[in-house]
Structure formats: C-alpha cells, structure tokens
Batch of 2 targets.
Target 1
Amino acid sequence: MGAVLAMNVIRQSALALAALGLMSCGPLAQGGIGTQLVTAASTLAGRTPVAPPPPQVATDEQIAANPGQFVRVNFRDLGRWDTLVVAGTNGARVTWIGSANLSVTMENGIVVATRGLPRDLMGADTVQTWAAIRAGGGTAERRHDFLDNLDQISPRVLQCSIASMGPDPFERREQTYNTTRFEEKCVSEQLQFTNIYWVNRQGQIIRSLQAVSPDAGYLQIDVF
Amino acid sequence: MNKARFATTSVIALMAGVAAHAQQSDVNFGFNGMPGMIDMPTAQSPAKDTLAGSLAYQEGYFRATFTYQLTDRATLAARYSVVDLYGNPTSTIIDGEFERSFDLHYRLLDESAYLPALAFGLRDVFTPGRFASEYVVATKSFGDNLTVTAGLGWGAMATRDGFDNPLSGLGARPVFDDADPEGQLGSDYWFRGDAAAFGGLTYQINDRWGVVAEYSTIAYPEQPFSPALETDTRYNLGVTYRPNDSVQLSFASLSGRNVGVSGTFSLNANNRPAQSGSESAPTPVKLRDVQAAQSWNRATEPGLRAATSQLLQMEGQTLTGLEMTDTTARVRYVNGRYRSQAQAMGRVARLLTQVMPDSIDTFILEPEARGIGLSAVTIARSDIERLENRPGAAESLRAGVAFGDAWPADSLADARPARDAFQWGFGPYLTINPFGGDGNIAVSAGLSLRGVYQITPQLIASGAIVQSVLKADRRDPGSDSTPDIQNVRTDSQFYGDDGLPVLQALTLSHYGRPGTDLYSRVSLGYLESMFGGVSTEVLWKPVDSAFGLGVELNYVAQRDTDMLLGFDEYDYDVLTGHLSAYYDFGNGYHTQLDVGRYLAGDWGATLSLDREYSNGIRVGAYVTQTDISYDDFGDGSYNKGVRISIPQDFFIGDTSRGTYGTQVRTRSGDGGARLSVDGRLYDVVRDAHEADLTDTWGRFWR
C-alpha cells in the first residue's frame, strides 16, 4: 500500500531525526535543524527552559546599606523575584536590570518601560499620573506602547483616575513604613488595570504594584 | 496582609479582542483539511490569516493538506494525496497513486440571526481532478454548540443520489480524456452534470469533545482512475477532540466500512505564540555630558574599536569595519542573531552610546552579509538619547533616519575579529521530495558534514558531504514520460540513492559591489545536488526602492547520480539564466517575475506572488509557463505551486536568523526548472533595505 509505505517512511524519518537531534555539533551546527527541533519540542511540550534561580546579587544588609541602589521586583506572571541594579539613567528615567536580563525602566517610581517580558511595555508617558499623586489625587492620561505579534507598535491611550486610600503602613524587613496608599484605575477601549502605589512622607513611591500588559501581568516593586 | 491586597487586583482585563480569538477554534476542519464535517463541507471559514496543516488517513487513502485563509472570506488549500485508484479495466488497482490538488472555498454570506452562512467551493480544480467536485453550502448554528449544514454538490459530490442539474443552463459533465493536457483549470467541468443534496450536523459537547454526523453524496464509483474506496452506507459519523485551540483530532466511521483519523494543526499569523519575544533586555542608552566636545583624542581609536567589537559580540553582532571622524562613527557589522535587522540595528545603536566619544553625534550603521555592505542607515545620536522608552519612539526615530547605499569599504578600518577562517558543522538533515517519478514521496534523512573556509571576507569556499541513513531502493527508470527533454529534475530520485556518502555541494563563491546600488555574485563548483558549473548574477537594488532588477547567467552540466565528482553519466550541459524583476507592493505583498531560459533549455517565465507578514511568516504561490509543449511536459503542463515559511522565533521566542520552512509545489518537472544555487543576491540584500527594515522597525527598541 502506497499510503502505508508513505506513513512508515515518515515515521522512520521522524525517529531518525529525533535520534540525530542529539548529535549536532560544530560551530555551524548551532541552530541547525536538530537543535531547533529539540528546542521547539521542549517548548511546545510546555517545558519552557527553566531559568536558574537568580543569584543573590545583594544581601539584605547590602541593600539596607545602599539606599537607592537596588530594587526588588516580583515578576508575578513569571513566578520569580529578582534584585535589580541601575543599568542606565536617561534624564529622570532609570533603567534597572537584574540577573535574568529583564529590565524595568521607571520615572519617579512609575514604570515606563520593560524589556525581556513576553509582552513588553515599549514606552509610556506617565507624567500626569505622577502629578496627580503629588497633588493627592486627580486624573491622568497615559499612553502605553506595546509591540504586537506583527512587530508593529500598538499604542493604547488610557484614562486614569488616581485617588488616595489613606494611610497604609506596611512592614518590610522588620521595619514599619508609614505610607499613604494610592490607587490608579486606568481604562482604555482595549485595556483596563489598577495600579497601587505606597508613597512615603518624602513623597517617594517605595512600594508598588503596576501593570505591564495582559500577557506580562503585574510587577510588584520594592524600592529601597 | 499586603499579599491579599495584591491578589485582589492582579487581573489586567482585555476588554476587546478576545472574541476574535475564540472564533478560530469554532470552525470544524474536515478530512480534506478545509472547513467541513468529515468528507462534506460546511459554510464556515477560519479567521483571516489562519494557516492550517492537516493529515488524514484511512485505508487506501492518505491526505496531507495545507490551508490558508487569504481574506476574511476566501480559503485556499493545496493537498497531496496518496490513494489507490481503479486501473483500466477496473478489475486492476493502481496502488498508492500520488495526486496533487488545489481547493477554493468562499463564504458569500455571513450567518445572521435568521439566515445561515452561505458558501461555495471548488475541490481539486486542475485536470484531471480525481476528486473534482463543486458545492454550494449553507450552515446555521443553533445556540453555541450545534450547527446544521445542508448543501448541493456536483462532480464527485454527486456520485450518489444525483438528480438533474438545477443549474439548467449547464450541460452534462464531460469525461476527462487522457489525451488532453493535465494540470489545466477544469472550468469546463465545474457545476456540470448531476447534482446531489448532502447535509449534516456538528455538536460540541464541551470545550474539547464534539460529535459530527453527515450524509455524504460521495460514492466512489468503480470507474477507471477513480479512487478505489468502497462505501456501504451514506452516513459518516465522527468524534472530534481539541486538546487546545490549535489542534483538532478526529476519529470517524466512514461509510460503515472504514475507520479514519485526522489531525489538523492551525495557527494564525497574527497570533504569535512567542508574543513579543523572549530576548534579553538590551543595554540601555548612555547619555553624553551636557557640554559636548568638538573632537576626540584619535590616539584612543584602537581601544575604542576593540571595545566596540567586544560589546557588539555580546549581542551576537560582529564588528567588521569602523570609520570615525570628529563627529561620525561609521560601523559595519554582521547580524548573527536577530531575525529583524531593525532589532539588531537598535541594539548596535544603543551599544555605541556606551563607548563612542561625546563629540560623535551621528551613527552610520552598515549591515553586512557575505562580505559586502548592504545599506547605510544614518541615525542622529541625539534621537537615540531623546527617544529611548518614549511613546511613539519607533515612529519618531524612523522619521529622522536616512537610508542609503553602503559606502565603499576602502575607508573602513578593518575590525574583523581574529578567528579561525575554517568553520565546520556536523548534524542531521531531513528532506522530503514528494515528486519521485514513481509516485511515492521520497524522504531522505541522515547526517551532513559542512565546512566553510573564508579565504577573504568576500571569497568563501564551502562544501557539504551527506550520508543518508534511509537507503532508498529506487526502481529503475522505466519509460521516460518526457523523452524529448532532458531529465533535469525528474531523475532527482536517483541522485544519491545507493546509500553511500555523497558530495552535496562544493563551491567557491565571491560577492562584490561593482557600483552604487549594484551587487554581484559568482559561484563556481558543484552548485547543487544535480548540477555543477558556474553561476553569475548581478542585482540592481537601491536601498530605498521597492523595485529591484537582476540578471543571472549560468553554465552548468548535469552531475552523475552517484553525486561524486563526475559529469559523464548524462553528458548534458546547458546555458541557463534569467532576467528577474522584484517588486514590493507594500502591505506585505511581494512579487517576482523571472524571464529566461530554464535548465532543460526551455524558454519561459515564472511569476510569483508572496504574502509576507511582518513577523516573518511567508505564504506564496508561483506559476511557470515555458515553450515546452504539453505533450513533452508530461503530467502537469506548467509548473505551479505554493510555499510557506515560518521563522523560528514565531514559536519559541528566542531569536534566530534561521527559518523553518517548507516548500511544496505541484511538481518538479523538467520544464520550468531553475538551478538551485545558494545565496541569490536579492535574498541576501533585501532584509537590510528600507522596506524590510521598516516592516519590523517596531523591534528597533526591543
């Protein structure tokens, strides 16, 4: 039977390939079909390559002794924490990067960009949000740029209302921080989210929960 | 306590856009790989830009179908079938005959509250059309889970319970005459002859399981060259299982006699599993001091060059040349990592802000491939500094960028890293050639050993030795169906079929820039598995133009089937070449026209049209017509086919210059066959030119 023969041949070659996939070597073989198939197979099987736990780049003591040098970010949808250090400063915007090569850029503690997440925030304008927090509440317009599945920039304009929820002290490393909690509700036609900021008496955001994108989820950020 | 608060707000809602996704999995794919029940069609269509691959097997009948939703309403399919046919007389059976077919399905009306969706379709549109049939079909859904379908079929779909054609103007359906040319549009047959009424329903029990029942009007009558499949009843019953949105598995009882299985795997080109990618974060921009200097200390140049080279290497970019003036840095590099040249360019530009002296305010970035500069993109350093992480940054930067031809290499300081000129690789390969002349799919898998020796950046020797692990035992060539033309492709199955190592290719190639907007290539040696000789090419393609023009001239001889060094077996040589025009229409449509002389000495033209998505997915079709007569050409009077390629990063997010691809075509006949030489110029240069850079410009800042 021709069809059975065809099926057999296809099955044989699949088995042969599976065996051969483990055998690629040499500089030119990097990214060859064997490697690609093995990588693709493990990804499709849901076994996304598990990154090692982030190395402890800074101890609690180091963090405490160097205020302004570190932030801790919980990438909730990735299920991982990381300690980030400053990689670059561009005006009021500071880009923090961690051991997993994920970066978060903030302006006055408000996230304006991420890199390395499944759906990055490519750029954002958040000055009105910051002004509203400084004023104790108000409204703001944000623009968020995302990179879509066709590699085009997809902008979202969000209308936000910022309100103080009153004093909300929290404890971190056995120290109590007296903060005011602000909630920012943002809505656009395609998107809605709520950010939370804990602002200390000096007017700094020292803890926050901020949305990146539906695919990348929220970041919980602790600023030291 | 704060954790609890976090949890209550951990939902980012997508308010729109979800509905469009859900629809994709609602469409049931039949065993033909098209919207349908089992053998019969429905009036539905998958979401626009859906690509689906489908395999279906029942005893004596195997189908592999590739389906593409070209527009919201039009579905196209290309299919290979391996099927047993009745011989002539029908007491004989032709085992495992290989058939190719093309289908069109078009949804005329959308379903509304009271009216069903209405569609028509044509199956197996080219002669002789073993499965040729046409239909008009209506499908109505009731609630979320039940659909009911009724339709009229012609041709193969009216081989049971047929009645007089309701389209009274159309006469009887002709019988295909074996003396007629094959591979023609079968428009003389469409909607002619008897019609028959079919129907059925699908019921989705839950998200994963569904059932389907149909009344089929395909009877597989015992006629010469018709599928030798037997049927007892007119009812097909099936169960469908969808483990996720992109997979549908079906198990069916066919006509009371057979059991069939099928699997359909679909993806949408607009719905990238890898989302926006998983590459590491880039190095951020470094600002200059406010008081910018007017010049810089030239004594530091060697150090700067070394530092730049090291930084670029971390991003998979190889610095090959650097030229610095008081205010400009011209950087030539090879992108060894990113599919998108724009993304590579964005990374290089940001890295340059880390090392370049403050007085340098202009970056001229020149991507290089095969030793030649492909383009020069001039970017103001202040734009990089000003726009980083800003909304609209890609668009604003793009507006200020200048695209031009790469400058001459003379003034560049050589910055190529010292590395071995010889590189090698050893790994597996797989090829599937569905066009063995004896009707079977020729599959070859094995090991290949490749080596590349870079004599100069532009002069490269490369070779590949291949050992197949699947020994093909080919039948001897029997009767040559096209005795009057050289077997330039139809003998491909005999090449390297004796299980010994073969020389796949051994070439010396040179790339050059003979002038502004001009590119050249000379390749010499064993160019491909069947031909060796010399291949030369010149391409004119301005960086900012959507139009390109190329001329290729080759003198080649046919290699021996043992694929060693000889050319004696066929004693055939030919002068072949083409004039090629390339045009990018925009919106993802690309076309190419090749006019010239093909391998068998035939003259003609090939027209290709490709739909290219900015994320790298390409779906295309091509047709070739040459002056070879129908009689000489054998089965299929002109070459036509479809091709698809999907980049690796679409699935796994990790970026790569590689592409998964498969190319299927109706036949690799001897007419309209082109030399398969590696590294044609247009493919080498286009992704660094303005149009392609613009397509993925959104990745500049990624």
Target 2
Amino acid sequence: MGAERLSHEDARAAAERAARASYGRLVALLAAPTGDVALAEDALSAAFEAALDSWPRGGVPANPDAWLLTVARNRQRDHWKSAATRSSVELDEEGAGAVTVLDEVDPDRIPDRRLELLFVCAHPALDPAVRTPLMLQAVLGIDAARIAAAFAMPAATMAQRLVRAKRRIRDARLRFAVPTRAELPERPPAVLEAIYGCFAIDRGLPTPDWSTSLTGEAAFLAVTLATLLGTEPEAWALAALITLSSARLRPPGAAYLPLDRQDPREWDARLIAEGERYLRRASGTEAPGRFQLEAAIQAVHCDRARTGLTDWPALVLLHRALVATAPSLGAHVALAAALGGADDPAAGLRELDALPATAVACFQPYWATRAHLLAATGHPAEARAAADRAIELSGDEAVQVFLREFADGLGSRAAGTAP
Amino acid sequence: MRYTLLLHYPEVTEATGDEALSPEALAEGQRAFASYAEVLTRAGVLVSGEVLRPSSASTTVAMRGGSLVIQDGPFAASKEQLGGTFVIDVPDLDAALEWAKQAPSVAWGTVEVRPGAVFVRDGAWVPND
C-alpha cells in the first residue's frame, strides 16, 4: 500500500472520489443478497467514515473499493450477529446466506451489480413517483435533502418516502435481477423513464438552479445503464438526449434565450460530439422509439453549430413521429413550435387549437408557443394576451423577463411601428 | 419466502341483483381452479389453497364493549369479497407475481400478493425467511 501520509482534506477528497465512482456498485453488491438497501447504505457510510479516519494516517489503499467493501461487509455481519443475539437464535438463514455470498466476492474483482439495483429501483411493485428519487439515492448516494430540493418537496417527506420504499424492497423481497425483454417487456422502459425523470426535473426549468441540478447525475445514470445493457437502442438514445441537452445548458444567472436564438458558439462541442456518438449506437432495427426521436431532435438543433442553419423540415418530421409514438401534451406543443420555425405558423396554431382547453389552461409552454405563433400570423393583441398568460404561469424570472420584452415589442408593432 | 395470494372478486348474490352463475360457468371456474392448483403443485410451490364459500355464509366474532359479539355477514360489506387464498413458497416477489398473473380470478377480480411474516410449523412459530 502506498503509505504516503495524507492530510485530512486529501483523505476526504480521496474518499469522496471513491464514493462518487463506487457508491452504487458497492450498495448493489451489499444489498443484493438480502434486499436490505437501507442496511447496505448504513454499512457503506460507516465504511466511508472509517476511511476518513484511517486513510490520513495509513494512506489511501491500493484498492479503495476493496477496502470499503471489506469494512462495510464486517459492519453488516456485526448487525446480523447482534440481531441474532437479540432474538436469541442462531444467525438466521438469510443473514448467514448473505455472509457466505459476500465472502465469495473477490475484493480485487468486484462485480458490477448496479444494473440489478437500477431495475429494483424501477420495479413495478414500487410507486412510480418514488423510482427516480430512489435511484438517485441508492445508486448515486445523493442525500434526501438534495433530492427533496430538486423535487420541490419538504426534506422530511422525501426521506420518509425513501425509507418506506426501501422497507418495501426488503419486506416484499423484490428480485435483484435483470429481467430479459421476453420475461417482462415493460421493465427496461420503466428504468429509462425513471432516469429521464432526473433530467426532466431540470428541463422543466429554462435556467436550472445549479445547486439542485440533477442533469449531470441523469447523464451518468443513462450512460451507465446503456453501457451495462449493451445493445438497447432506447438506452443509448436516452444517454444521447441528456448529453446533447446538457451541451446547451446556460451558465447560472444567464438571461433566458429560446433555443433558436442561442449562439451555437456557446454550446459545449465536446458534449455534442459525445452525444452524437451515443446516438449512433442507438440505431436499431426496430422503428425508432420515443427517446431516439427526442435525441434526434436535439441532434438536429445541435447541428446548427456546424452548418449555421436549423433544418426545420427535418424537425417537423421528427416531431410528427414523436407525437405519433408518444403523444404527450409537450410533444404536441413542441410540434406546433417546430411548424412555426418551418415558416408555417398557421399550421402550428391549428395544432394548438386541436388540444383540449382544460389540459392546456395551466401549461406554460402552450401559452408561450401560442404567443409566438399569433405574433407570426399578425395577431399582436391576441399574442400579447397569450404572452401575459405565459408570464403568469412561469416560475422562472429569466423567462418572465424574456416574455415581457417580447410582449412589449408587440405593443409597438400593434401601434403601427415597423417590426 | 412464503406469499399469500388473496383472491378478491365481486360476488354473485341475490343482494346485488345479479343472476346466479350458470352451471356451465360454475363448472368452467372449477376446472380453471383445479388446473391452477395442479400447476402450482407440479412446480413444487404450493403450500395450501382454499376457495371460500360466498360471504353470505360468513359469521364474524369480535369483542365489542367488553363482550363478544357474534354477527352474521362478512368483516366488511363491500362489492368485492375475499373469495380464496393460495399460500405459495417461492424465492421472491417477482416469482410470486408470475404465479398471481396465472390465477383464474384475475379475469374477474383482483389478486393481492402479500408476503407472510411468521407461520406455524410443527406447533411453533417460524419466521418467514
């Protein structure tokens, strides 16, 4: 072992690096035999604490993961032993079995069971609303308070939901295994959906709050899932979608600009190249799924960095396919906006008019898109009313400023001044 | 790990005004349950199985105000009643759900899959592993 003396800060940094890279891998391995995720997390956090105590004195071990696994495994064993003592019976079968299974793990060749853990977190026996938070905590080690902030929920409520979900995984004994597509065709989509959830939380906000942003975490999970599944086109497409979208994230405090007004030179070329690489791996033999279409839409937008032009006809086609594949309210509104970009705002308005009034009443993107399409078809007064409604519905100050300027610009046009 | 499949479904009773099941439908249901029990037995997962008489034959016993009260009828009067139970011993919930999907009554009711906590073996309580 490189017994170089470390400051407490260096040891902390090393422990945190190990935590970031190995957290999910170690939790998956510790929890799989008994299904007790909470116990695995407790044992692992005790191991991290021990590392902070021991590494500054003895140096960072050659294989930090193996070190952490051994300490955490001992913690688990202590827990089972004391539980067995309390109930005055021999170590029950479950605990004894788990110890044996873990003893067979060669610390130098730690298997990766994160995929199983991801599938447990998105298990059909769990409430869909808890799946994304559970993944963030069990696979990435993000604490309940930060997850709660991202989901705009009190920390205690989120913590309680996570505790309940983990208890359910243990008590009902959910299977830690990767189901084949033939077994349960709905399982991979549920995992993708939950990872998309980490990303969608941010995407709902035009200028995400970076202290609570989960986009980086979502990208990490998506790439991990795609890599572990190997050849699942929709998994690679989700990785592409998230990576391409993060290439265009605006710096904190930046003024809001809609996509087509952004300067492509400000985008992250490295992330665009990475996202395009994932998208190429996503091409399968079947008809493109929802995430492939969404990623392709992002790729078309990003292509402006190369060509200087937006291929609006291609975007209209992709949005039409998306509406046919996954007909959400957002998909319809995005198609309307694409039609506007392709110089057919009247068709965009027709698309919007076909949506049920009750569904769109409080949907901010509908009103913002409607305002722009009405302005483009020469209806400044109605456009201003729609913009006002969009401003009312927007929780983001930067977006409000942008829409206010847009509405004021309409005012001068309405008064007869040249646009 | 033991799971109990609780079969809930609407009962065909005079009270609900429904017509009684035809003898053919009844025989069809009995055949379906018989073959379900056979499949579970062959797979070596069946601990016990029971289909109950309608809740109109039920009697409840409870302590009310310090004395035991015996009443006719089921625990709760609702449209769906507990109609039967199957106890199975399988490795995990996913396996239990696969068996639950094959229960004949999923076609006309709900199958609740509930893990057991403890059970009696040779007169002593044993924790469900």
